[in-house]
Amino acid sequence: MRTALAVALGIAICGSTAGAIVWPGGDDGGFLTLDKNAAKCEAKAAKNWGKLWAAILKCQGKLVANALKANAPIDEQACENAAITKYTTKTVTTDCPCIDTLNNAGIPEAVVNGNYELISCDPGGVQIASLPDNGAVQITGNVPTTKDILKAEAKIAKAVAKYVAGRLKCHSAAATAYQKTATFDDPAEEACEATNQTAFETAFNAAVTRQGCEDLAGIEAAVFTQVESAASLNFCVMN
Q1: How does strand 31-33 pair with strand 20-22?
Q2: Of residues 190, 202, 235, 213, the one with CA closest to residue 30
Q3: Other CB atoms within 10 Å distance of the CB of residue 77
């Protein structure tokens, strides 16, 4: 109890003298600020970034659904470009200028492109990269061979989007709490993230018509790397 109290007080003192502290815990990147406007700015930026991840996943989902139906090619890249433009336009960083929206905007597309085989992986389907649709050449994975697999993988993709948004929400809640109290509640943040992860795993396992190649552990590892370890992309104010 004394150790925990000392840690809490140490964090509070550090926050009150320096204004911001390096995010405690060791698994998050970034900083926690006492500046109210900056904290609100970071939370809004993080929320918008989560929406961008969802939009990119949705664009790629439309691509594979269209391919399974053997419809005319679509411009998947235009879909992603529109989502990126919406993110950069709506994410105002006046009170948190350390957030590089142009840099952040390209990350979800690159990560989802390079890891889509974790979701859409039917070995019997054609490679997504071989499709004639604009933007398809950058995307890993295969087109599902049945409607049931397509529906299951679409549910998984939607769950991934919620999983990313949930982690970002946990970070924002922790940052907001610190801004208000000048103390960091690591157990509360960890509990939030654990609840979010359980919800994702439940949704993944509920997609019972999936092919079987979908990679739960791989998805969680990718999200951890891009959202947890790289929290400094959205939580970076140092005053």
Answers
A1: antiparallel
A2: 235
A3: 17
Q: How many angstroms separate the CA atoms of 164 and 177, rounded?
A: 20
Distance CA 194, CA 188 (A): 10
The DSSP annotation for 200-224 comes to: HHHHHHH-TTS-S---HHHHHHHHI
128 lies in a domain? Answer: yes
pLDDT above 90 (res 1): no
Mean pLDDT of the chain: 91
Nearest to 120 by CA among 213, 224, 221: 213
Give first-to-last CA distance, the chain, whole Å: 30
* pLDDT tens track for 197-212: 999 999 999 999 999 9
Does any domain span residue 239?
Answer: no
Q: Binning pLDDT at 50, 70 and 90, where does residue 5 land?
A: very low
* Angle subtended by helix axes 36-68 and 76-90, to nearest 10: 170
What's the mean pLDDT in 50-62? 98
Residue 139 domain-assigned?
yes
What's this model's pTM, rounded to 2 decimal places? 0.91
What is the domain range of residue 59? 2-233
Sign of CA dihedral 118, 79, 51, 154: negative
- The letter for the amino acid at 8 is A
Q: How many domains are there within the chain?
A: 1
